[in-house]
Design goal:
RNA-dir_DNA_polymerase, DNA/RNA_pol_sf, Reverse transcriptase, about 180 residues, mainly alpha, HIV Type 1 Reverse Transcriptase, Chain A, domain 1, two-stranded antiparallel sheet, about 40% helix
Length: about 180
């Protein structure tokens, strides 16, 4: 069940009761594994991580650093889809066009943009101006629209968030299983 539909059904009281079956011992062992994985992945301090630039983080994921990964052979086999440097332009058109199926009878999904603080507007404008100059985005011709806002990043700066609630509700989920 899709979580959004589940939340709506729960809110509309179409779901009266939830029963969660669990194995307490298995849950405890999985929680301990997660704690250990988290401890291993957070060996570098928050200060060190926030001080790294995007390029330094990108370089830290080089082919040499991935050799210990169990997925290294698969990654090397499909290396044509992975970049060796931070992309500055859109990838070449490979002739594959993506389409999203909408529920029949759906009108245009238009959400008005709500007012934002000036610093968020500046962050959004700067982001899209730089992407437009690099050729990564173009002016939209879509009749659909979604509001956007920004969330403060832990390292500083803004993360742009799009409110696609209306569009998600009008979208028919893909029936193709994810491999």
């Amino acid at each position: 069940m899709i979580w959004m539909r589940f939340a709506k059904d729960l809110y509309d009281e179409r779901i009266k009761q939830i029963c969660i079956l669990s194995d307490l011992e298995r849950m405890k062992s999985e929680a301990e594994e997660l704690r250990q994985l988290h401890a291993a992945s957070t060996t570098e301090s928050e200060d060190t991580r926030s001080a790294k630039t995007k390029k330094e983080r990108f370089d830290g994921q080089s082919w040499d650093s991935l050799k210990a990964s169990p997925f290294y052979d698969v990654l090397r086999k499909h290396k044509d889809v992975l970049r060796d440097e931070i992309p500055a332009e859109t990838p070449q058109d490979k002739g594959i066009q993506h389409e999203i199926d909408l529920v029949p009878g759906t009108k245009y999904c238009v959400t008005r943009q709500w007012p934002l603080p000036r610093d968020q507007v500046k962050a959004i404008d700067d982001f899209f101006d730089s992407r437009r100059q690099a050729g990564q985005v173009r002016e939209s011709k879509s009749p659909h629209s979604a509001s956007m806002f920004c969330v403060k990043k832990p390292q500083g700066g803004w993360r742009i968030v799009h409110a696609y609630n209306k569009m998600n509700d009008a979208t028919i989920p893909a029936q193709t299983p994810i491999p």
